[in-house]
Amino acid sequence: MEIKFNNVSYAYNNNTPIKVEALKDINLNFIEGKLTSLIGRSGSGKTTIAELCNALLFPQNGKIGIGSYTLTSKGVNKKDVNKLRVNVGLVFQFPEEQFFNMTVKEEISFGMKYFKYKTNKIDTRTSEALKMVGLDDTYLERNPFTLSSGEKRKVAIASILAFNPDVIILDEPTIGLDSESKKNLIQLIRKLKTRLNRTIILISHDMEIVHAISDYIYVLDKGKIVLEGDKYFVFKQEDELKEYGIRVPKIMEFSNKVLKEKGIKIGYRDDINDLIKDIYRYVK
To answer: Where in 31-112 does DSSP place strands (E)?
Structure first.
């Protein structure tokens, strides 16, 4: 499923005379089957875009095409909203803070019951979703509040995958995770994209994960898109990114530094081991 924003604007007034413009005439395209990242300072409009994609908000100007659905300032009827939210799964920042069921099984199945899935399929989908995130049925009766941070995040993602959505939005999925949990999460996201052909939208301040898995990147600042392109193009713009408070991933920072200071173009690599091989090659 593809998502297109056409001249979309949104402002918060928070019941005050002063409006805060979160998005200003935004145009962007989340391509089907690709992983697109949104990066920028806090308050730049990233989460607002995610909530618009999931119909938690509606554009005040412009329109959003989400598959066969069109969102405008007039909104959309409740039946279509529910269908859309089944197809566009949003995993919030710190999603485990929204847990309220006492077992993992109840937590994952809650949404399916809310959207009136066939009862005889709920248990099967719950088990399948757990396996997709690398957990087994032994977790079904466990209390989600007693799990590790990485396990909680996996359960939160499983609760979305249970719907089998076409689009998956991950808002700061690596916050609070240790290095091993981050590695496992990256592997999971890659599997969702390559094996299941899901459209994935990633919102993150973690440039290492953005670099590792992104196909395309939008850089936002003060509600506007200020830079866009594939990850290699975007992260070459080191000086410009610094103006927007964004640090280049270490692997590309090293390659940029070697080029600037030594005049050696060793290329850009996704994996540190490939970079090390290139360095040995040049040393020889």
So the answer is: 35-40, 61-66, 69-71, 88-91
